[in-house]
Design a protein that fits this description.
By secondary structure, this protein is α/β, with parallel strands linked by helices. 37% of the residues lie in helices and 26% in strands. It is built from 15 helices and 14 strands. Helix 11 links the parallel strand 9 and strand 10.
Amino acid sequence: MTIQHKIIPLHDIQQLNLAQWLPADSITNEIAIQFDKAQQTFALNDTAQAAADTNLSDAIELVVFADIKIATLVNLLNECEISLVGLHAVNQRNNATSYRFSVKVIDIKQARNRLSSFNTTEKIESALLVNAPTLATPGLLVMDMDSTTIKIECIDEIAALAGVGEEVAAVTELAMQGELDFSQSLHQRVAKLQHSSEDILAQVAHNIPLMEGLETLVTALKKHQWRVAIASGGFTYFADHLKNMLSLDAAVANVLEIQNNKLTGKVLGAVIDAQAKADCLLQLKNDFAIAPSQTVAMGDGANDLVMMAAAHLGVAFHAKPLVLAQADACITKSGLDCLLHWLK
């Protein structure tokens, strides 16, 4: 696309989406873009000097999808106090197109918090990233299991079959909201399963519902020599099942004690809590010789926060407000494969 220097009034394009305004197949180089809030205009310039002056690829990135309306993009910029610098990349992955804008922000944490709220309200996906991991270089993704890689909380399903569903679900929710210590809550919940048949585990594992986009995400990452693992406060019975099903590189979870084909109501060994999940990510990073800047953690609950903080990029997936507030990026409505667009 040849632009040289161009001023475009917002009212001329506000009903268009990004793909209509800046078609992906016409963009062959970096474009310097500024939005003038006072004048309600976009200034575009794709000269070599403009691109060099703005250092587009080194800036903080705002990633949005091709179908976002220009009017919505402007509202996003205003709401989150984000200033456009330029467009430096367009990615076409998993049947979707995303645009990567270089931007400036005054306060990255505040901007991210406002962006997660904006995403939820507007029902869109976007992310504000700093030195995002790249798909082209080997990396490590560690995911939570329950309500992240699968659509259920396994312990709640086990409890329902054991006849103590409501009691256990109430404790699970308190733990996920961060209102109850995870290890304490796990022991409380597992204790209620005492004397239940081991067959219940097989019933839950049979046709376990995978989260949308999981298989697409794992396949794409594997093609690019990424390592993929599960670190779960759930149970090895299900984590190992997923590891085998998806050919994952590792799976760490809690071990239910079983005697005479009955659950004893106890967990064997140390509980895989928030810190243990983070330790798992760091250990796998070392084991697989992955650069720290190439690590990603993804989860939905409070017990995923330490792991997410240990990774270079922590992503909240369909998450609780507490998790959204502390994550680097979020996925609010799409499947797990949306993560492919948060990577360079």
